[in-house]
Recover the amino acids of this structure.
């Protein structure tokens, strides 16, 4: 697929990008997706973000200066300013002030159309490597990551190989949540009875913060997890060790997991009952019973 | 079945000190005010002149007063959220999640439904009939019903502070979280019934104002001569009429799920929560334009008056307003690009959302050129307008960025989004409300607010806003999502501390505003507006006394152009005297006071409260009471009172004298050529 960096229409703005990146750096001073994205999706989204920002700033900055400038120059006490007490229409000015925003929106709309298609979350990533399948289930209030190819599962810790496309299937076994790893890119809703598809990739090893981005009840703030991007060898080693230890995720274990709990320390399951994700999505397994919250 | 439904002593959170203290203080204040009113013997006056009044000016003032009180309540919630997040780094803070979630839900609900909406509707009530040159709105008693139903909703939301709990699902109750399974307590019910009741009030307001603007205008007031504020009020009320039924129905469906075991939006039984998202935002996006359009109208009036020039590009502004009105119904999906509807759908709604930026941008440019060649006076109202213009272009810019579906996949539900809508709601809607408050206060009360404190309030709000919300943009880019009760990411901490400082600056601004009101009232004798036209205004509302007589216009004005009062003044200045000879005054029929609104709202509160706690006999009682009120009103014998010609003549002569005085002042200031 084409990343936004390859889209030719964004070229003229390259000169602005270092400036904006610098501004972003000065603002954040930390390791954020806008400053140092860790995957192709977040990199492309960063470019779209910065291009849009740059194009808008070309209009916004002069307008702000004009607002302050006009107000100050035409202050009542300034005798030198022109006085046009009846001037209230100019066809030429109207043409210009309708055209400027219209042209900007035409341009940004073009970017929106193309990038929305190129970066659609369900669109696969161009790569020589076959994607790693990960099924994500949002629970009250923890994340379950199932690795169907490896036959293991993990709670509140996402372990992935760097440099390999990741094909997430997302659902929720309870209320809605949004699955979000800012450093890697797009978030997507996790909804009961629905399976969303999201492609992401970590370009380099590291630990990336992941979280739920939609209020899901009392334990919502605890629904965050570390994404550990490992080298291929390390990932292989992890999956082997995960298969060797931990409990088995069978139906009773899943039903126990459904019960609300928060601040759950990460652990993994050595095996997963077959087609667990499908059973959840197809509603063969019941949804979470709901928070035992105080009325 | 329990006689009191689900209501019991357990509903009162005796074990939680914070809500108990807060509720106690509020209760104490309310009791103290009521006692003071009673002891001073103000009850008959309040009942006669305010509570049962159907005068659009009185109702407008009461709407604004409700908005200001609710602003304080909503702002206390804001302080609590900011301090909690400033403290809750690797810590629990002082608010448990169950309480924190109620606070952000209440903050959003109160600020949108019970602060911003009443403020804008209040200004429209006060000003639109005056600007149209008429004596009242189309349905004065319904207007009173609207106000009291809004107040009823506000009361129910605030009752949840001490009796039971409020919703914990955010300012919009997204299912399945808001379904009975996941929100078993009465919080969501409080939310739904409060919004259902006040929403009916708002819908009636919409019908009332659309009718008023379309059918009741002074002779000669063609559509192309209507002041811009009336145009924006028309657009806003058209949106209310079209959008509020969707809100009412969406919440009714949710209530059916919760009360009657339906499965519209539930996880099980074939429910589909995605439908709720579509429905609620089909109302929700027009809603933000319902709020911002009247604010645009206020800015148009203020910028024109304080630049001493007609509004630039009037027709262009009308087209822009109506374009926004129309397009605002075609963009709702941009609130959930991340639901993953697909690239075509997302791109379509992204582009539609960007298109709204065109007429909005045109408006900014037109205000800019209104100042060009003018004589700009920096009054408090003008400062609010300039602060708005400077800040709103940034809010608009981030709005366009969020409308880019690709960028939204990283920004949605982050603090970047929250910063964006605070940017447009605070510096757009609220600054507009404050500009209108400073601008029209003398018209409502006959004296001018303290300008020096008003300017202080502006600067503190302006700086406070940016200190509080510029960090929000940064936090969003750093991957912080909204509504976090605590967090472990070190990089967020400094920005949340800065934001907490910002909210303290805003606190100072609000204290200054309270001081401004108190000082202005105490020194009102020296700040009387005797001319009725303190700002050298241009539209009809300035052509009558401040405060206006109950009938507004002794004789309906004949409108011949876009700025009738400015034109009148210019002609009089040229002639050196008021041109029109005194007309023959006749008696004027005005609608009688009516307790219908208040009594209706009383039964609405009873019914709402009973429904929330499932006290079915009380529900029946409340509904019967409301129906009886309706029957009683429908069978009224006398609906109008007559103001005798003598009284009209006396009031109008005083106004004409004031007018001459105003002209004398003007003639001194502007030497006629």
């Amino acid at each position: 697929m084409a990343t936004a960096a390859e889209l030719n229409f964004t070229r003229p703005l390259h000169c602005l990008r270092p400036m904006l990146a610098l501004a972003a750096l000065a603002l954040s001073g930390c390791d954020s997706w806008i400053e140092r994205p860790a995957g192709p999706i977040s990199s492309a989204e960063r470019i779209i973000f910065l291009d849009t920002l740059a194009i808008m700033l070309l209009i916004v900055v002069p307008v702000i200066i004009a607002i302050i400038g006009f107000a100050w120059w035409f202050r009542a006490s300034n005798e030198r300013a022109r006085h046009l007490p009846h001037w209230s229409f100019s066809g030429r000015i109207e043409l210009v002030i309708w055209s400027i925003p219209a042209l900007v929106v035409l341009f940004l709309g073009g970017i929106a159309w193309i990038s929305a298609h190129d970066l659609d979350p369900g669109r696969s990533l161009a790569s020589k490597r076959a994607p790693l399948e990960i099924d994500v289930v949002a629970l009250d209030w923890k994340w379950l990551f199932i690795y169907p190819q490896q036959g293991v599962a993990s709670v509140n810790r996402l372990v992935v190989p760097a440099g390999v496309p990741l094909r997430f299937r997302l659902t929720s076994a309870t209320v809605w949540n949004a699955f979000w790893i800012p450093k890697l890119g797009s978030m997507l809703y996790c909804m009961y009875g629905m399976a969303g598809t999201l492609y992401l990739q970590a370009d380099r090893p590291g630990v990336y913060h992941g979280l739920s981005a939609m209020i899901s009840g009392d334990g919502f703030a605890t629904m965050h997890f570390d994404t550990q991007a490992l080298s291929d060898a390390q990932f292989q080693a992890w999956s082997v060790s995960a298969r060797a230890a931990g409990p088995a995720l069978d139906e009773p274990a899943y039903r126990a997991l459904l019960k609300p709990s928060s601040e759950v320390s990460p652990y993994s399951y050595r095996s997963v009952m077959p087609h667990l994700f499908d059973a959840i999505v197809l509603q063969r397994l019941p949804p979470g019973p709901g928070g035992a919250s105080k009325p | 079945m329990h006689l009191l439904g689900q209501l019991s002593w357990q509903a009162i959170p005796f074990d939680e000190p914070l809500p108990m203290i807060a509720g106690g203080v509020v209760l104490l204040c309310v009791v103290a005010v009521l006692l003071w009113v009673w002891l001073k013997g103000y009850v008959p006056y309040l009942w006669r002149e305010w509570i049962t009044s159907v005068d659009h000016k009185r109702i407008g003032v009461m709407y604004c007063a409700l908005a200001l009180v609710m602003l304080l309540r909503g702002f206390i919630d804001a302080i609590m959220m900011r301090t909690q997040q400033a403290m809750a780094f690797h810590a629990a803070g002082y608010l448990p999640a169950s309480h924190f979630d109620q606070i952000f839900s209440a903050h959003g609900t109160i600020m949108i439904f019970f602060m911003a909406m009443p403020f804008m509707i209040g200004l429209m009530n006060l000003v639109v009939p005056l600007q149209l040159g008429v004596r009242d709105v189309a349905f004065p008693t319904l207007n009173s019903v609207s106000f009291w139903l809004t107040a009823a909703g506000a009361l129910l939301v605030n009752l949840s502070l001490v009796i039971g709990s409020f919703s914990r699902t955010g300012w919009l109750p997204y299912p399945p979280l808001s379904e009975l399974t996941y929100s078993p307590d009465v919080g969501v019910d409080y939310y739904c019934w409060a919004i259902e009741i006040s929403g009916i009030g708002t819908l009636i307001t919409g019908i009332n104002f659309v009718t008023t603007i379309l059918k009741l205008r002074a002779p000669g007031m063609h559509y192309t001569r209507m002041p811009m504020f009336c145009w924006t009020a028309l657009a806003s009320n058209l949106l209310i009429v079209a959008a509020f039924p969707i809100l009412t129905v969406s919440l009714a469906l949710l209530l059916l799920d919760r009360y009657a075991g339906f499965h519209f939006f539930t996880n099980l039984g074939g429910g589909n929560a995605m439908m709720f998202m579509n429905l609620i935002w089909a109302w929700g996006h027009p809603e933000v334009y319902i709020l911002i359009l009247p604010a645009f109208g206020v800015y148009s009036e203020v910028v024109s008056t304080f630049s001493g020039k007609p509004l630039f590009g009037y027709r262009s502004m009308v087209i822009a307003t109506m374009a926004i009105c129309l397009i605002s119904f075609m963009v709702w999906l941009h609130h959930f690009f991340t639901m993953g509807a697909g690239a075509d759908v997302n791109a379509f709604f992204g582009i539609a959302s960007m298109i709204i930026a065109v007429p909005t941008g045109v408006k900014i440019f037109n205000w800019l050129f209104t100042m060009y060649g003018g004589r700009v006076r920096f009054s408090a109202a003008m400062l609010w307008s300039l602060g708005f213009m400077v800040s709103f272009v940034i809010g608009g810019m981030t709005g366009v960025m969020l409308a880019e579906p690709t960028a939204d996949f990283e920004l949605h539900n982050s603090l970047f989004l929250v910063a964006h809508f605070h940017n447009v709601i605070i510096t757009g809607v609220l600054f507009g409300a404050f500009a209108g408050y400073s601008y029209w206060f003398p018209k409502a009360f006959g004296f001018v607010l303290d300008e020096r404190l008003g300017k202080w309030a502006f600067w503190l709000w302006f700086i406070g806003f940016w200190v509080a919300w510029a960090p929000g943009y940064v936090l969003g880019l750093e991957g912080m999502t909204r509504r976090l009760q605590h967090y472990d990411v070190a990089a967020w901490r400094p920005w949340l501390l800065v934001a907490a400082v910002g909210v303290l600056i805003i606190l100072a601004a609000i204290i200054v505003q309270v001081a401004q009101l108190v000082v202005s009232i105490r020194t009102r004798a020296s700040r009387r507006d005797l001319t009725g036209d303190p700002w050298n205004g241009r539209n009809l509302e300035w052509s009558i006394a401040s405060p206006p007589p109950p009938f507004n216009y002794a004789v309906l004005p004949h409108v011949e152009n876009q700025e009738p009062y400015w034109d009148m003044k210019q002609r009089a200045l040229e002639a050196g005297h008021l041109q029109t000879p005194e007309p023959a005054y006749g008696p004027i029929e005005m609608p009688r006071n009516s307790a219908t609104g208040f009594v209706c709202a009383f039964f609405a509160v009873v019914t709402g409260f009973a429904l929330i706690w499932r006290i079915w006999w009380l529900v029946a009682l409340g509904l019967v009471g409301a129906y009886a009120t309706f029957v009683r009103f429908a069978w009224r014998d006398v609906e109008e009172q007559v103001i005798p010609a003598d009284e009209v003549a006396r009031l109008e002569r005083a106004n004409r004298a004031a007018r001459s005085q105003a002209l004398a002042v003007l003639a001194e200031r502007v030497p006629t050529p």
